[in-house]
Design brief:
Length: about 180
């Protein structure tokens, strides 16, 4: 079974009431974003269906000088539906990476471009690792703390692997491809 946006919304709301925007921010800045993706175009229809099904409630909060905001919270039926969703075996992990796709064809790249790609990715991974290492964790959030630790371990392993093995690609990169061909 694949985890769908509906289940993700129920899960995030199990942590406490939130707006659609706050749910989306969890995909961009929170721990969910390291593993799953969802757009506003998927989140808001899911919230509408969950409200129609009585699994979540929506209350309107007025804001000074801003449009009213909708705050969603889990109902008892929603908690039960989420508990049921947690009993299903997850689908296989999938990892998609444009970076790895490019490395698949490393022998066709100029060496300087290949080195640039790897250096940039290492910078990105190191920044993400620092972000995870510094991220505060809510007391009692065992799952979030576990995910954070998993993310830290994965980024450390990827960084170590790239640093230790980049030479395999760089020594075989096509030295006949002009540097401007990669631009």
């Amino acid at each position: 079974m694949a985890i769908d946006v509906r289940t993700i919304c129920l899960g995030l709301l199990s942590l406490g009431p939130a707006t659609g925007y706050e749910i989306k921010k969890n995909f961009e800045e929170g721990p969910i974003g390291y593993f799953l993706e969802a757009s506003f175009g998927a989140i808001y229809p899911a919230l509408g269906r969950l409200t129609d099904e009585g699994l979540i409630e929506c209350r309107i909060e007025a804001q000074d000088g801003k449009p009213d905001r909708k705050v969603y919270s889990l109902t008892d039926r929603g908690r039960a539906a989420f508990a049921d969703a947690l009993r299903v075996d997850p689908g296989p992990d999938r990892f998609r990476s444009e970076f790895l796709f490019l490395l698949l064809f490393a022998e066709h790249m100029p060496p300087d471009h290949l080195a640039h790609l790897i250096d940039e990715r290492l910078r990105d991974y190191r920044a993400r690792l620092k972000e995870l290492e510094r991220a505060p964790c809510r007391p009692g959030s065992l799952g979030i703390e576990f995910m954070r630790g998993h993310g830290i371990a994965v980024y450390r392993a990827i960084i170590q692997y790239l640093e230790s093995n980049r030479h395999v690609l760089e020594t075989r990169a096509d030295r006949s491809v002009p540097a401007h061909a990669a631009e």
